[in-house]
């Protein structure tokens, strides 16, 4: 009788512990750092929570993806939103996103050592690709994929608006308050408060 009572007690305790642990999102507990009021949707994928640093009121929405490798690190400022299916990949560099910025659906940010720096109040449209890395290709005797990578880095300054389906290549800086039209391919830096469009992107006029 006593054994049966103890067995039932252990079972109830086990159920209680499992219920408590099941209600805790461990990703929020073991992040590199975390602010208050954060939202991490259950379907968001975080490969290395210790390399993800997020401030107050950040939202990581459905199926967003965060991948870091080696010395890679991702920092997201207060009240910024990473929308559904967006992907951030940091190899041995750092992705920094400022406050009140938004990365929209299916967009990709990828960097190596040069990193990607995105300022405050930046809007990045859906399906945009920001790639701060390139393959080396100087040696014709070695396959390109074996020659390693180079990375200068990409900077998008405060208040910039990047339209949908834009591609921003390594070494580019988008000036403060500039607008990049949908579908543009940005191969050279854009000055502040300009509107740029085209393939390759060219400045059309100042705001």
Quick rundown:
Helices cover 12% and strands 34% of the residues. By secondary structure, it is mainly β. The chain has one domain (26-206): Hexapeptide repeat proteins (UDP N-Acetylglucosamine Acyltransferase, domain 1, 3 Solenoid).
Walk me through the structure.
There is one protein chain. With 207 residues, this protein is mainly beta. The chain has one domain (26-206): 3 Solenoid (UDP N-Acetylglucosamine Acyltransferase, domain 1), CATH 2.160.10.10. 12% of the residues lie in helices and 34% in strands. It is built from 2 helices and 25 strands. It has helices spanning 2-22, 26-29, and strands at residues 33-34, 39-40, 45-46, 52-54, 59-60, 65-68, 73-76, 81-82, 87-90, 94-97, 102-103, 108-111, 116-118, 123-124, 129-132, 134-135, 149-150, 154-156, 161-162, 167-168, 173-174, 179-180, 185-186, 194-197, 202-206. The strands form 4 sheets. Strands 2-5-8-11-14-19-22-24-25 form a 9-stranded mixed sheet, with no helix packed on it. Strands 1-4-7-10-13-18-21 form a 7-stranded parallel sheet, with no helix packed on it. A hairpin with a 4-residue loop joins strand 24 and strand 25 (202-206). It is globular and about 65 Å long.
**CATH fold naming:** UDP N-Acetylglucosamine Acyltransferase, domain 1
Give the CATH level 1 class: Mainly Beta
Uncertain segments = none
Report how far the terminal alpha carbons are from each other. Answer: 83 Å
- Helix vs. strand class: mainly beta
Percent of residues in helices comes to: 10-25%
- SSE pattern, N- to C-terminal: HHEEEEEEEEEEEEEEEEEEEEEEEEE
For the largest sheet, list the strands in their spatial order. Answer: 2-5-8-11-14-19-22-24-25
The CATH homologous superfamily corresponds to Hexapeptide repeat proteins
Q: Estimate the strand proportion.
A: 25-35%
Q: Could you say how many structural domains there are in total?
A: 1
Rg, please? 22 Å
Taken from the alpha-carbon principal axes, the silhouette is globular
CATH architecture annotation: 3 Solenoid
């Amino acid at each position: 009788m006593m054994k049966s009572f103890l067995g039932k007690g252990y079972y109830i305790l086990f159920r209680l512990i499992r219920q408590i642990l099941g209600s805790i999102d461990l990703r929020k507990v073991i992040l590199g750092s975390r602010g208050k009021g954060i939202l991490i949707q259950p379907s968001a994928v975080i490969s290395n929570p210790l390399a993800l640093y997020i401030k107050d009121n950040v939202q990581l929405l459905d199926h967003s993806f965060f991948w870091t490798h080696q010395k890679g690190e991702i920092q997201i400022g207060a009240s910024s939103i990473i929308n559904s299916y967006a992907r951030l990949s940091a190899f041995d560099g750092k992705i920094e996103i400022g406050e009140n910025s938004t990365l929209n659906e299916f967009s990709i940010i990828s960097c190596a050592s040069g990193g990607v720096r995105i300022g405050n109040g930046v809007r990045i449209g859906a399906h945009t690709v920001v790639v701060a890395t390139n393959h080396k290709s100087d040696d014709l005797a070695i396959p390109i994929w074996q020659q390693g990578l180079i990375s200068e880095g990409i900077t998008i300054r405060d208040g910039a608006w990047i339209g949908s389906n834009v591609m921003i290549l390594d070494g580019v800086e988008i000036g403060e308050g500039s607008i990049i039209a949908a579908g543009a391919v940005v191969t050279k830096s854009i000055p502040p408060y300009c509107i740029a469009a085209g393939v390759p992107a060219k400045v059309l006029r100042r705001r």
